[in-house]
Amino acid sequence: MYLVFLSYTRPMEEVNGLLEPHIAWIDRYFASGDFISAGRKDPRTGGMIMVKEMDRPRLDAILAEDPFQTVAEYDVTKVNITRSADAFSALTGI
């Protein structure tokens, strides 16, 4: 799976102006089963998305659709989950 960290590069006014289409984009990929989890950083300097295993070019194409492309940088890390607490056992092997 992938961990995608977004870091805002523009003022919050610009980020907030794109929030509605960004959430619609997130919702679309939750509905397709590609996104596992998402949330804001605290303090609110960006966000994080957990993405299921896929080819990296497909992930890059999905990320390129995000309206936040104009207000954030993306740091993508591939992670191979080998152990999980019982409550998160479904993540093992994703």
Would you mind describing this structure in some detail?
InterPro entries: Dimeric_a/b-barrel, YCII. Residues 1-77 form the YCII-related domain. Belongs to the YciI family. This is YCII-related domain-containing protein. The chain has 94 residues and is α+β, with helices and mostly antiparallel strands. It has a single domain (2-91), classed as Alpha-Beta Plaits (2-Layer Sandwich), CATH 3.30.70. It has 3 helices and 4 strands. It has helices at residues 12-17, 19-31, 56-64; strands at 2-8, 35-40, 46-51, 72-78. A 4-stranded antiparallel β-sheet has the order 2-3-1-4, covered by helices on one side. A hairpin with a 5-residue loop joins β2 (35-40) and β3 (46-51). It is globular, with a radius of gyration of 14 Å. It starts with a strand and ends in a 16-residue tail after the last strand.
Helix and strand arrangement:
Layout: E1 2-8, H1 12-17, H2 19-31, E2 35-40, E3 46-51, H3 56-64, E4 72-78
Antiparallel strand pairs: 1-3, 1-4, 2-3
